Input
Amino acid sequence: MQIIPVIDLKDGRVVHASGGDRSRYLPIDLHSRIVSGSSIEAVVSALLALHPFSAFYIADLNAIEQDGSHRHIIEPLVRRYPALDFWVDSGLRYPNSSRDQPNNLKTVIGTETGSEPYDLSDSAAILSLDFKNNRALGNPAWLELPQYWPDTVIAMTLDMVGAGRGPDFAGLDSLRCRSPHTRWIAAGGVRGIDDLQRLATAGLSGVLVASALHNGNIGASELSKF
Output
């Protein structure tokens, strides 16, 4: 199972996401044991010193909320690390078809944008099925059209993010039953090694993690098991 660190960007800094209330997110260094600054360069360097991750997930919160963009920060970082994949959610409703986009930048399409479902089955994009408080965000019709889903789909439970309550295992089981051959990525609520092991046993292909890395619950020894 692939462990993918999460980087949430807001107003030029990496922030600590908790509970899905983005107005209250604070700089990550106030909550982290592994970083001393909140620049994206400092955070990526610290995470790579912890473990040789192969991919990072970046949420451009300003772009998602249509209040600016961190493109000028993200794209130089992506080019600096050509051997790593960067999954970037910047609020796009459709995959970026620009030829100038680096090959290691993967577009994440989040359903919270409210777009009408369309066929992503042959796309290299990653779909994020977004949930909050047991409700699908955006257009719920996405859930009824697994034939439109790409190979990799994130199950994003925003209210679980940073809450320390554990992943939504029941919800993940339900989604996997709808599309057993999808490469499922869990997101939200991971507390430590026990949650990682349970997700791996359940057949998840990957998991997005932030808080448990920064608070030390998941360290180098735990990561080496995956």
User: Anything to note?
Assistant: The mean pLDDT is 92.
